Amino acid sequence: MTKDKPTGRPEADGAQRDCAKRGKVNGRSWATRLRGAAGALLLLTAGTQAEAALTMADVTTWAGIPEAPGVNHAVLVIDWADTQGSLLWGYRWAAGQSRTGIDLLAAVIGADPRLTASGLAANFITNIGWDADLNGSKDRFHPGYDAGTQAYWNFFVNNEVYYHPTDFSQNGHIVPPALVVEPLGSPFDGAGPGRWVESSTGPLDRPLVDGSWDGYIWQPYGAGAPGLPVPEPGSVGLCLLGAGGWLLRRRRGAAAGLLGLTTAAQVVAGPFAPAAGLPGSTAINAHDSRFRGWATGAGPFLRGVEDISEPGSAFVTYGNPFDAAGPSDAPGDGEERDFQPVVSLGDGGEMVLSFGTPISDGPGPDLAVFENAFSDSFLELAHVEVSSDGEHFYRFPSVCLTPTTRQLGSGGLSDTTNIHNLAGKYRSGWGTPFDLSELAGAPLLDLKAVRYVKLIDVVGSINPAYGTMDSQGHLINEPWPTPFFSAGFDLDATGVLHDRLETWEGWAAEQFQPADFNTGPQDDADGDGRSNLLEFAFATDPHVPQEPLTAGRVVRNGGEVSVSLPRRPAAWELDFQVESSPDLGEWHALAVSHRGEPAVALPPAVLAETPRPDGLVDMTVTVPEGTGGFFRLAVAVR
Questions:
Q1: Which residue from 30, 124, 405, 446 lies 20 to 30 Å from 239 (Cα-Cα)?
Q2: Residues 6+ apart with CB under 8 A from 122
Q3: Any residues with CB less than 8 A from the CB of 335 and at least 6 apart, and which?
């Protein structure tokens, strides 16, 4: 995610960042520090550097996509600094796709339920645990920070880290002058240049490339060289541990043989579309040219609490409703990640978005909702409902097949193939699509004029007292609880793929038969005083007489005059102009709307626009008394 969530260990956050900034730890130089850190990881290979050669070819437990041409590879190593050695896993993803250290860690956790970690949302990894037999009790565990030993989880990479001259965190993994990451190779290959280098950033800002190695080691500040090598486990231990791959062997051949015994439990893929960028994915990029518009208004907004299971839990506070209006703020391909405005809904929170131009049912998906998930696996979800009148909402039928035998927890990972019709299925920058045709038959829903979209946070608890169900009655298991000020679904934007931008010609062809009379724009088919063009401009029936438009439109109060006149944003060919005149002779413009855009006031007028449930917008113009005794609305086709 682009925002930080508290880790509960502020002293650990500050300590790690200060160490990177100072360049010294407890009076020791970076060079000394890195030698000690590298040595601690070399403990995993338990032998001389030459004997301990280990490369990516020795890894047998992989997360991500299957092996194929054009696939990138990275390795994750975790060292609890105990007597049991380290574990490693591999991760594959399609070449050309952007991935970070968080994606690597999240993919491995999602593929191997025995591994858990917290802090993924905060970009500061804490509480890494290992439950070898999945009995609910951690066999290996360290918190985010131990004040007694001053130990913490330190993050290492296998490429040089260059520091910006004025900001240590900027360009933390960029290698000048080519501006690409160049891995040094396996840190355990004695014949190569590979080595561990302490990271200057968190894993979210660590770009992965083919050949990347990421390592997490639990160690105190200023840790020195390791002690004696750890003995090899006996055969019984091998059968019981069956871990994600062991580095604890003296020879490369032995390591490969032991790795062959690993049987990491894989999350069974579901029947639905996979993660963004993979074949068959339905994710839509925020910069896709098919988007015709975005939400223009936000509210009402009902904030949820940080933890619905805790009595008196505080309401979330992150973001503002207007952060959900307008286009997605997610960076495009190749753009640098920066602050991304979103609004957090909290447990069970709700947000209604409005659209100046109604969404219309067309071929395929009609809208897409964007969350700001930092990976393909750490997903916070929301139900999506739509309405034409702002009162009657209809929910898209959702399905979540994520197993509910174990609560995912605040750092839990999901598989997108188990999720359907829930916003938040895809990572930041990729929208979850929704097709209005799935709601055909809803009695008070006009599929050609959907003006409101409601997002309702999913409470991902598997406790029925708090949890949210999908349309089939399944409890939805997602990362929960997330007791932060930014808890719950984080709404970035909602984009429109099909809208009701009507033209005069299309409307007239729909309303009139070829043999009809009085069908021109200046004609008045029903004789109610409104031309056919005005009927089009106000979305009224040209065959049914309407009340006069002037009634109740002008109000005088305290030396000011206000006039309220409607415009129809969907009629994108039209310009609307509020005008005044002292004598019905010369007219002066007070406010102008061009081709469906918001109106702009002209001095001395003051303007306020109010969306209406019928899709029109009231333009209320206020001017000093005497500015004009007469007012009118001019409508023109462009």
A1: 405
A2: 4, 5, 6, 7
A3: none
Give dist(CA 630, CA 624) in Å, integer: 13
List Cβ neighbours of 239 (8 Å cut-off, separation of 6 or more).
none
User: Which amino acid, residue 192?
Assistant: G
Question: What residue type is assigned to position 271 of the chain?
Answer: P
Give CA–CA dist 174/206, Å, rounded.
9
Rounded Cα distance, 458 and 385, in Å: 13
CA distance 559 to 548: 26
CB crowding 573-596: b at 16 or more within 10 Å, else e? bbbbbbbbeeeeeebeebbbbeeb
Q: Which of 82-86, 183-187, 305-309, 329-333 has the highest mean pLDDT?
A: 305-309
Please tell me the distance from the alpha carbon of residue 484 to that of residue 315, in angstroms, as a whole number. Answer: 9
CB 427 within 8 A of CB 374: yes
The C-alpha atoms of residue 464 and residue 338 are separated, in whole angstroms, by: 38
Alpha helices in 494-630 (DSSP H): 504-511, 532-537
Q: Please name which of 234, 173, 232, 233 lies closest in space to residue 204, comparing C-alpha atoms.
A: 173
The Cα–Cα gap between 451 and 571 comes to: 15
The CB density around residue 397, as the number of other CB atoms within 10 Å, is 13
pLDDT tens sequence across 255-314: 222 222 222 333 346 899 999 988 899 999 999 988 988 999 998 999 999 999 999 999
In the chain, helix, strand, coil percent, each to 5? 15, 30, 60
Specify the amino acid at residue 546.
Q
- Give start and end residues of each alpha helix (H) in 225-352: 235-241, 252-259
The two structure tokens encoding residue 440: 């055909």
Whether the Cβ atoms of residue 344 and residue 121 lie closer than 8 Å to each other: no
Output the pLDDT for position 413: 78
Listed in sequence order, the residues at least 6 apart from 609 whose beta carbon sits closer than 8 Å to its beta carbon are 598, 599, 617, 618, 619, 620
Q: Between β-strands 293-294 and 399-400, what pairing exists: parallel, antiparallel or unpaired?
A: unpaired
